Automatic annotation (TrEMBL):
InterPro entries: Ald_DH/histidinol_DH, Hstdl_DH, IGPD_sf, ImidazoleglycerolP_deHydtase, Ribosomal_Su5_D2-typ_SF. Keywords: Amino-acid biosynthesis, Histidine biosynthesis, Lyase, Metal-binding, Oxidoreductase, Zinc. The lineage of its organism: Bacteria, Candidatus Moduliflexota, Candidatus Vecturitrichia, Candidatus Vecturitrichales, Candidatus Vecturitrichaceae. It comes from the Bacteria. It comes from Vecturithrix granuli. PANTHER family: HISTIDINE BIOSYNTHESIS TRIFUNCTIONAL PROTEIN, HISTIDINOL DEHYDROGENASE HDH. One of its GO terms (molecular function) is NAD binding. GO terms for cellular component: cytosol. This is Histidinol dehydrogenase. The keyword Oxidoreductase applies.
Length: 659
């Protein structure tokens, strides 16, 4: 068993401590290439053939994908305490990754009139690779599946090698089911990576693959990098245990064995500045090894006499320097000043603090992700996270003042770099009097005068309204005729979620609704929501006036539902501006790219613009998206009732006097 005193080692011997198990990359790549090409050319047939060859499982093509009844059967094959462990871990992992989820949209003024930010959206499709080389790994299924679901990926597909009888490990299937993922394929290895990269008759072509695998899987990802995003590099398991003179030698010895038992290609070191702690930990190891099953004992002995063992340094600072240079996958810290030392640790896939936090707890149940960078990649890569399943687009916006401030600087930059068209796009830029860009031949819009509301078109079936303020211009169109083919494309406010909610109003009211915005200042959520609500309210009030002569209800009440959420809404057009809102459940501060209070402002603005009375009562629900979705659905259904035909009410209002 290796026992090193760092001050006694030569430069070359020190360098050897940082080496991991080496594989012949060229040999692996040569072995992988023909398999990839076969799958590319022959699809499912090649996948089935290689699965039979490498996994000993003879699986018909039509059974490559796990069927619903196999999920049901899997739940009967595991012990209740295993399911309880999976559910407990899933809850913690989900809670951690929910906190990790980035803000969907932000934008800030970085200079007067210059706004920049980011919008984060999920990747459209991902593949999750769950290995089964040295055992069953439902924990990997959770570590991959939970963040993918939290991120909002719509198309999630799992690939895992089958057992020789052609089934999938039952615990892994149960874990997938708990994640809410049901696209699972009975194939692994190189053939799985090639299939998901190119697509086959059964397996869709996917955008990204994440998850650890064998050297052959890693080689396949490397060869297919130009075809599919291969994500985080993950190789054999590795760990360091950092200890000072106050550490418990017995506990450090226990944690040293944690990753060493993964296999003979793993790496594991105890690094300490205390010769006493090192020697006592070494003394505990033989008895601990005897308690392991023969295979795991053999793995640990191979690692601790190869790429592992105990390293003693002269000082704690030198031990910390060793850790940062090694950049381990897992780092267990047993020191007196836990948080002070942690601030000095720069390179580690995960940092695990204190005696009560064994590495195993983090592997399975604590919450942070256990799919981590290995082989020194922790110097530049992070642990797998929700962000691996999302991508970010920068968002830029200039006001007129911001544009004018930057114009000359941008022209000078473009001309210096020789980009004439770049410079011309500013030099030749022309604007209408309202600040919008125009070409020489653009037909001017219908003129309107001054601030306030302007009805541009009105008849009993269609109203077009414009509202101009010092901050924004809002255009609203309502058409009660045949549904437009591009109905959803006519909603173009700066906020994705607000557009989505306006879609619900349009669909439930059975009316074509278009809303566009133009801002001269940054579009704060409360300003946009209130202004859009007021403009829509004014437009609907005009539609009410147009239709009142024919006779319509003028009032309505409806309940909107989606999944667990339900809202009741009531509305009456009787020239009384009033909005009342209650919620029987706690409201989340944010939903998607919006603040809940801003969405509330939409209804208040509508009541003010329409001079109508609105009551919205959120009755139940958990998901913030669903809560607001149910509210806007109920609101749209109310509008449908308000404008429902009622000849008896011809020429009247819903008020008591009927005038």
């Amino acid at each position: 068993m290796n026992f090193f005193k760092l001050w006694e080692l030569s430069k070359e011997e020190r360098a050897n401590l940082f080496q991991r198990t080496q594989v012949d990359a060229a040999e692996l790549l040569n072995a992988v290439r023909p398999i990839i090409e076969e799958v590319r050319q022959h699809g499912d047939a090649a996948v089935v053939r290689y699965t039979r060859q490498f996994d000993g499982a003879d699986i018909p093509v039509d059974q490559l994908k796990v069927r619903p009844e196999e999920f049901t059967q899997a739940s009967t094959l595991i012990e209740p305490f295993i399911r309880a462990a999976i559910e407990k871990s899933a809850g913690n992992i989900r809670a951690f990754h929910q906190l990790q989820k980035p803000e969907p949209f932000w934008i800030k003024e970085i200079a007067p009139g210059v706004f920049a930010g980011e919008q984060t959206t999920p990747i459209d499709s991902v593949a999750l690779y769950v290995p089964r080389g040295k055992g069953s790994f439902p924990s990997v299924m959770l570590m991959l599946g939970v963040p993918a679901v939290v991120a909002g990926v719509e198309s999630i597909h799992v690939f895992t090698p089958p057992l020789p009888d052609g089934t999938i490990d039952a615990a892994t299937l149960v874990a997938a089911d708990i994640c809410g993922i049901h696209h699972v394929y009975k194939t692994g290895g190189v053939q799985a990576i090639a299939a998901l990269a190119y697509g086959t008759e059964t397996i869709p072509k996917l955008l990204k693959v994440l998850g650890p695998g064998s050297g052959y899987v890693t080689a396949a990802k490397r060869l297919l990098q130009g075809v599919v995003d291969s994500g985080l590099p993950a190789g054999p398991s590795e760990s360091l245990v950092l200890a000072d003179e106050q550490a418990d030698p017995y506990l450090t010895a226990l944690d040293l064995l944690n990753e060493a038992e993964h296999g003979p290609d793993s790496s594991a070191y105890l690094v300490t500045n205390s010769l006493d702690v090192a020697q006592r930990a070494l003394d505990f190891l033989p008895a601990l090894l005897q308690k392991l099953p023969p295979q795991r004992k053999a793995f640990c002995e191979t690692v601790l006499s190869g790429h592992g063992g105990i390293v003693v340094t002269s000082t704690l600072d030198e031990a910390i320097q060793f850790v940062n240079e090694y950049a381990p996958e897992h780092l267990s810290v047993h020191v007196r000043d836990l948080f002070g030392v942690t601030k000095q640790l720069r390179n580690a896939g995960e940092i695990i603090l204190g005696e009560y936090t064994p590495i195993a707890a983090c592997n399975y149940s604590l919450g942070p992700n256990a799919v981590l960078p290995t082989t020194g990649y922790a110097k530049t890569f992070s642990a797998l996270s929700v962000r691996d399943f999302m991508k970010t687009s920068s968002v830029s916006y200039l006001t007129k003042a911001g544009y004018e401030d930057l114009r000359e600087h941008v022209i000078h930059f473009a001309e210096h770099e020789g980009f004439a068209a770049h410079a011309m796009s500013l030099k030749e830029r022309k604007f209408r009097t309202d600040g919008k860009a125009q070409s020489e031949t653009l037909v001017p819009p219908q003129p309107v005068s001054g601030l306030g509301y302007h009805i541009l078109h009105a008849n009993p079936s269609r109203v077009v309204c414009k509202r101009i303020t010092r901050e924004s211009t809002i255009d609203v169109e309502i058409d009660t005729g045949e549904r437009y083919p591009d109905i959803n494309e006519k909603l173009t406010t700066p906020f994705h979620f607000l557009n989505h909610m306006l879609e619900h109003i349009s669909w439930r009211a059975c009316m074509n609704i278009g809303v566009s915005t133009s801002v001269t200042h940054y579009p704060f959520g409360h300003v946009i929501c209130e202004d859009v609500g007021m403009t829509m309210g004014y437009a609907f009030a005009e539609l009410w006036r147009q239709q009142r002569g024919c006779g319509v209800n003028g009032e309505g009440e409806a309940t909107g539902i989606i999944d667990e959420a339900m809202t009741r809404a009531a509305m009456s057009f009787e020239d009384r501006a009033q909005f009342c809102f209650t919620s029987a459940v706690p409201l989340h501060e944010r939903v998607e790219d919006m603040l809940s209070v801003d969405l509330n402002n939409f209804f208040a603005g509508f009541a003010q613009g329409a001079k109508c009375t609105i009551h919205v009562d959120l009755l139940k629900g958990d998901d913030p998206h669903h809560l607001w979705e149910s509210a806007f659905r109920a609101f749209g259904l109310c509008l449908r009732q308000v404008f429902g035909p009622n000849p008896w009410r011809k020429g009247t209002t819903p008020g008591v006097k009927g005038i």
